[in-house]
Amino acid sequence: MAKKRIATVWLCGCSGCHMSFLDLDDRLIDLAAMADVVASPIVDVKDFPKCDIGLVEGGVANEENLEVLLKLRAASDTLVSLGDCAGFGCVPMLRNQFSNQDVLDRAYIDVESTAFGAVPTIEVPQLLPKVKPIHEHVKVDAWIPGCPPSADRIWKAVGALLRGEVADGDTLEYD
Amino acid sequence: MSNVRLSINEREIDCAAGTTILNACKAHDIDVPTLCHFEGLTDVGACRLCIVEIDGMRRPISSCTTPVENGMVVRTHTPRLQTLRRQTLELLFGERNHICPFCPRSGNCELQNRGYEHGVDHVRFDYLFPKLPVDNSHRYIAFDHNRCIMCTRCVRACDEWVGAHTLDVDERGGLSRIIADQNVPLGESSCVSCGTCVTVCPTGALFEKRSAHWHGRSTKEFKETICTGCGVGCRIRATVQLRQVGELHAAGGPDNNRILCEKGRFWLTHPGSARINNVLIRVGGQFEQRDVDEVVQECARRLRSVSIQKDPQRVVALLSGHLPLETLNATQSFMRDVVGSDRWVIADRSNTQSTRAALDIDSGLPPLAGLKELDRADLFVVIGANLERNAGVVASYVRRGVLHRRARLLKINPRHTWLTDWTDVHLESERRRDPMILAAMLKYLIDMGAADAATMPTDLSKKLKRFDDDDISIACGIDATQIKQMAALYAAAEAPMIICGRGLSKHGPTGLIGALNIVRATGNQTADGKWRLMDLALQANTYGARLFEEPGLNMHDFDPHSADIAFLVLGDSQREWPRTWLQKLRAVTYVVAFLTREREDVLAASHAVIPTATWSERGGTYVNLEGRLQVGAPLMQPPSHAVDEIAFFQKLSNEWKAAQDAWDVPPLPAACDGVADGALLSCRDDRDRAVDWTTLRELTEA
Fold it and tell me: Before A148, cis peptide (omega within 30)?
């Protein structure tokens, strides 16, 4: 069997899902036998090469998130939503109750620990009006909910995908 | 009731007519998913998860609100229904802001569980992201509207069980919200803080603040025990996590019908002062950490002193009525059998001896109606009791009786409480006139022919004839027409219930005897021969303590003035005594306090302090106010510094007495023998007991 190609990306998330991915521990060696990780925050590649499986952590909060997501969608055969932010919006979507200006002012100017703060405007992506789960922007083929999903469930789902199977959904977890 | 035969999922099922399809399914182990349904509450069909297909009907309908019919063909789990259910769940998730990872209910959430069961791994609909508030104004409870699914279980429980109806629904459709009163913050509302809404909430919308951050599925345990807050003795289900007690919920059981009150739900877990972690001995005005054996030796030394040898009455003990029967039993036995003093008292502010005298405790438990009778009563007479404060669960029974069964409420109590607004007649009389008022009520009942006066001595009946309204107004210090009105309402009621609080027995047994007389003379008995009267026990084991052969002293008569040693076995007690009473303790030479938490006034009076196990660390036997024996289990092991009172007194006895006088802790009172947990203790048959006419005589002589 030819080695599969995996790409992972982290959008508006906390990196917890990637930490959980690294928690595969010794199973990473098994994974390496079955697949190559061709792009990832832990692999220094600027663009996504063609891949079989794309794992997305985090929701879509700004223009950059959206651009990266669209690129990965185009590059991967199977796009997998990894974790609650990508699947449900989760904590980042708390900001959706407020206007972007209020959120930025609060974070950069009003916050108690800051004096003479200013909202950064140079070389930072523009916030989108709402943080949304990735499937509101692109077609998603599979979901692994969890905050973060445990290494066991990532292994179960990714393992099934590598073997070309469909993992059953009996082990859902939202937290 | 006739039977109905229908088919559910190709199975022929018989059930009673009038049953809902959902209940028929439950009875036959067919698991239909629900969210807004809660056992014991009226079904409203709000969540649409329990939908079923019925042959001949175009659309699926909610099974919780549809009664069974003969010949119905029902299907509960067709692919179409499962698809609809999943869509409904996704709509619920998308409607508000549900974020599981930081929700205290995660792992124990019904919405989450239904999501798992229906494979909701994402929401296909666009999220609405409404801006919703979190109401943090209440002392114990927070309401996060972001997590509310408008199942209205809290609204129904608050109304149907608690009888408060603080919560209701505002607006309609997508704008609908749960509100308190006329849309005021929960903390400023008429909320009685019973926390029932938290228990029934399927999501984390209503949660207890204290344990809100205790998230984590793996370490949570659920354990059952008895509430030690008052004599109602509700069963509670506790969340235990990392050696701490989290939320307390009503566990049902025979008595409390799924509700708790503020005491049971929150006071137990909000103790308000620091735990005592060491044995403390006063040395030159300051407490020092010492070993418990030093206290034992010091006590033994003092017990050997000449003055105590000559007069054992110089040893006194004060026991909290919240302690388990085992501890009370050992301590009173130590006082009686080892020390030889009968100067011990169960601290219960109510007049122990007067209730014993009135209820004639020495000949067995009095046959008084239980809590269930409160739900059948069509009239309540509340006398000398502040139900909201002291027996919240009983207050709930009364409120829901007034609210839903249109029961009448008569209140004899000078104090204005919340319940006062609901009364038909409220006598603002002086407390000490209560016995007179009850006697006058009996006189009117006799005049109306509602009470049997056959056994009344003739001279008394002659006297009563001459005794008119004006005399009664003078004797009772209140307009007699009000009393007459009460008597008329009482006479007209089918199942009137008299609820007596400690205010009634404060001034001697006549008040309680007067109440009993009314019940006896009017023959107000339940089917099983119990009087429709409730004598509120303020402490968890007030009734248990009444099983002892010797009653101990009266709280109010008890003066520790001349004592050499006082044992204060208090456990968790916080507010049981008049302040003046503790000041009297200052005259005692040596005071040993058994406490769990710091209490400034007690510490100030004590010479030695022994830390003991708190309510959640000790199991034990309790007898509640309907005579039900209940055994509570410890939720966790006591910490190593906690000293067991029974072991302490055993040690002290061994240290003090010679081997031939060794004392063994006696078994529990014989009445408890062979009684199973949750069973009623047997009470005497009082059906033929005569009316005690002395109260009427006292009225005419007043």
Answer: yes
